[in-house]
Amino acid sequence: MSDLGPLSYFLGIEVMHSDLGYYLSQAKYIQDLLVRFGITDNRTTTTPMDLHLQLRPTDGTPLEDPTRYRHIVGSLVYVTVTRPDIAHVVHILSQFYSRDSPLQLHAYSDSTWASNPTDRRSVTGYCIFLGSSPLTWKSKKQVDVSRSSTEAELRELATTTSEIIWLRWLLADFGISCDASTPLLCDNTGAIQIANDPVKHELTKHIGVDSSFARSHCHQKTIVLQYVSSELQVADFFTKAQTKEQHRLHLLKLNASDPPPPP
Q1: What is the pTM (predicted TM-score) of this model?
Q2: Domains of the chain: which residue ranges?
């Protein structure tokens, strides 16, 4: 590790030091935004928003490609770090930011079985969406060796359920309702049947904690397990290599895309 000297620029924020303290500026970041979106010739104004401006979702004509608008608003959100005076107008613009997709959680959970040739442990992964946007994801090798693909999937269902519970609590704190059960999609019918069955299974006694945990939250309606085919299993992305076509398909499902071209 080397000493790079006093901080002067970090993540688009200029840092200047004087006897009075530190001064933060995003002037360069803002200028780069103006150039990128081709609005350098626009006139300046003294306030962020006209006093009598009223915006409604029905005003104007819907954009054929709203991607550019989303990029502009998303960039302005970061500008509020040093310009709190524009926070209100950015909040107003953000109300027209998202697509008409329900703001609800849904998750994908997947696991390989004994895929590691050295220790025969399984690789597991999940991806949780809020609406159409991926919110959190994970890829990890399991600690224990699973004796079947169903066992490996059950362990990952429990892990994903824990993450879902935490996110539901977090969203509730933000005022986002999570009254409905969260769909959890899995491509292993055996794991789904065991998690939905109230009867304890002798064959899964050694993983009783994980299976009981997933089962209890199925019965509490925290989650609802749904089958998804392996071809449409987004969490496959986090557990194994993909063909070119699968990789492209899963990128589309994750809403991953190239940035818009410069104007």
Answers
A1: 0.60
A2: 9-94, 105-253
